[in-house]
Amino acid sequence: MKARPFSSVLVANRGEIALRVIEEARQREFTAIAVHSSADADMPFVRAADLSVCIGPAPAAQSYLNIEAILDAARRTGAEAIHPGYGFLSENAAFARAVLEAGLVWIGPPPDAIEAMGDKAKAKTLMIEAGVPTLPGWQGEDQSEGQLKARADEIGYPLLIKAVAGGGGRGMRVVRSADGFEDALVSARREAKSAFGDQTVLLEKYVERGRHVEVQVFADTHGHTIHLGERDCSAQRRRQKVIEEAPSPSVDEALRQRMGEAAVAAAKAVGYVGAGTVEFLLDESGAFYFLEMNTRLQVEHPVTESVVGLNLVQLQFDVAAGAPLPREQGDIEFHGHAIEARLYAEDPSNGFAPQSGPIALFEPRTPYDDRVDAGVETGDVIGTDYDPMVAKFISWGQTREEAIDRLRASLMVRPLLGVKTNRDFLLRLLDSEAFRTGKICVADLDQWSEAGSGPFAAAEPPDMALALAALLMARAPGEAIRAHSVRTFGLDLELNGQGSPVLVTQAGPDTVEVTAGEQSWQAEYLGGEGALIDWRLDGIAQSTQGVRLADGGWWLALGDQIVTVREASPWGPDAEADPSKITAPVSGTVVAVNVKPGQAVKAGDVLAVMEAMKMEMRLTAEADGVVSEVHASEASQAASGTILIELDLQTQD
């Protein structure tokens, strides 16, 4: 793969990584070119580019995965190089070859290296030959269910079914007993087929208390390959990373050296060039095993940048232009500790269901020291067509404890209001004993989720939200009263959707007494600018960030919780869900329909499966009955609330 200088870069991606690469390109005085779908026309990464081209409608298959449209945009804009970011086509060998065949510089590894590591079965064979430790398992061409089941029984349980194509935790299922193998295989294959177009799987022994530790590698075109230390990504849910840090609290200098040497050997085995990550599973004994290699820049690369003092995007530019690595292995030093949290538009209280809508407040570039890489800001709209990650919060400290505390503070001062996110969940996770002590393992979050414990335990919203909301509503246009009059009135409020009636005595336009049950508060409005509300609660002055909803309610960031408070609908709460109608819980794709009209079903049967933003949701019957209508089909799109299946419920005698 020939490297050469260039002066313009097209970024074949979207969101925060596209914005990051575009800004780095402009720092070099390169012409920065964005491509975007029609849904992203007004997003920050497009606004930041020198040139931009719409390459198709919202669905990724018609835009960000459309190789010909991207290459056409490169030709039309005079782009000399293409940076793929991560996700989408970043690990697509055919795309890399097409870029090179078009005479452009590919800011990534050779297509052959992508191909070698993209097939997990072949990659594992290569690693065994290169002397890199691997997990016991099986990978083979015979993909019949009987063969896979027989091999699984030989390996023993628990084991992991893993798609050989792609990555990011998709197409993976943990099987804990022989009885669960068939269902897990069907589910893993379906997800792998949907995500990667390939349902081939391999089997591996599953390590119960394993940690995910990955090593950043970098190679140039002059035969030099180095590693930049490890990152710990053990805080995961459903095989998706949530928090990452460098260095790992479980790795000492001797282990770091062994893992680094293994990662370099893995990269050299495929003739690697550029930035890549070799992922390992670390068990409690200190043994580590190759998982996969991500042949691209990782989402969590900023924590490595923070501890080694290198800009990895700029280093990618240099290597792609033919420059040698600026440091040798012995020159790499690690300073302090860095930690990153991923902010997702999702509802942790509802199975992390993806969320969408307009952002009423999010100012990631506020003047604080800590870094935030964000793809959205106030006024932007979060849709359902792409991954729900909207920002990365990165903090550095001299110690791990300092880095965690700084990250916590950064999340607190930059709330995203208007769309539900996982911010409050992240704060609880950072405060958990398992994370604070550095003992969290890959399986912990999923186990806590099942038990409703740890950061998944329901948190009671702060009562002060009722006092502040009542104060703000009393001051709303048309509601304020004369300074010397007094009135008492009731408000039927909903705090995070739960009814909370209050009694309000308003002694002036800026002062109220609020009573809820046996509690009461004195609240006084002191002023405010923009989203900042200055107020006094029972004599204590404080500031809160908040935005008003279209219906007159409020989104409020109160301490470590973001809450919504609104007046209850005069028609009362929504009626309970109709069990005779199976509806789409979010907007997304119907990936499976398991029933036909006339078919009898039992409560708990999985009637359909939906996918939205990398999450698979099973839609089950809540009562016995017979299918009367099926309105959905496999691969069809469905908006949130759409009726997919109707049942004639079985009456009880």
Automatic annotation (TrEMBL):
PROSITE patterns: ATP_GRASP (PS50975), BC (PS50979), BIOTIN (PS00188), BIOTINYL_LIPOYL (PS50968), CPSASE_2 (PS00867). Residues 573-648 form the Lipoyl-binding domain. InterPro entries: ATP-grasp, BC-like_N, Biotin_BS, Biotin_carboxylase_complex, Biotin_carboxylation_dom, Biotin_COase_C, Biotin_lipoyl, CPAse_ATP-bd. Gene3D superfamilies: 2.40.50.100, ATP-grasp fold, B domain. Pfam families: Biotin_carb_C, Biotin_carb_N, Biotin_lipoyl, CPSase_L_D2. GO terms for molecular function: ATP binding; ligase activity; metal ion binding. Its cofactor is biotin. It comes from the Bacteria. Keywords: ATP-binding, Biotin, Ligase, Nucleotide-binding, Transit peptide. SUPFAM superfamilies: Glutathione synthetase ATP-binding domain-like (SSF56059), PreATP-grasp domain (SSF52440), Rudiment single hybrid motif (SSF51246), Single hybrid motif (SSF51230). Residues 5-450 form the Biotin carboxylation domain. Residues 124-321 form the ATP-grasp domain. This is Biotin/lipoyl-binding protein.
